[in-house]
Amino acid sequence: QVQLVESGGGLVQAGGSLRLSCAASGGTFSRYTMGWFRPAPGKEREPVAAITRSFSPTTVDSVKGRFTISRDNAKNTVYLQMNHLKAEDTATYYCAAREGPSLVRPDYWGQGTQVSVTS
Q1: What whole-number distance in Å separates Cα of residue 65 and Cα of residue 42?
Q2: Which residues contact 56 (CB under 8 A, 6 or more apart)?
Q3: What does the pLDDT look like over 87-101, one tens digit per residue?
Q4: Which phi and psi angles does 62 have, rounded to 5°?
């Protein structure tokens, strides 16, 4: 069983930055595609960014150029660097993991960390 613990959320002004971290335990981190999700209208959660086992990153268009996902397999941790934050980025951000080459239907979820952006 894999446990995911997020940290790094908080309150920030528009244009500011935050870095989210997700520490994983209980599994072989290098086997998992990791990512970040947030709620979206009409959906429970939508993917924001993902990074594969081979370190290939993807981001959704709405955050492209502003958010960067990375992973450190030695620390069993995935990061989401969030720059130029906007009010519409306000959400609870959830870390997710799936053993395999993609993050379709994650196997594991963290408890979420709140990001609030004031305009």
Answers
A1: 25
A2: none
A3: 999 999 999 999 988
A4: -65, -15
- Answer whether 38's CB lies under 8 Å from 49's CB: no
Each residue's pLDDT tens digit, 25-59: 998 999 999 999 999 888 889 999 999 999 999 99
- pLDDT value of position 68: 98
CA-nearest of 47, 37, 2 to 113 is 37
- Residues 6+ away with beta carbon under 8 Å from 66: 82, 83, 84, 85
Query: What span, in angstroms and rounded, lies between the C-alpha atoms of 111 and 102?
Result: 21
DSSP one-letter string for the chain: --EEEEE--EEEETT--EEEEEEEESS-GGGEEEEEEEEETTEEEEEEEEE-TT--EEE-GGGTTTEEEEEETTTTEEEEEE-S--GGG-EEEEEEEEESS--SS-SEE---EEEEEE-
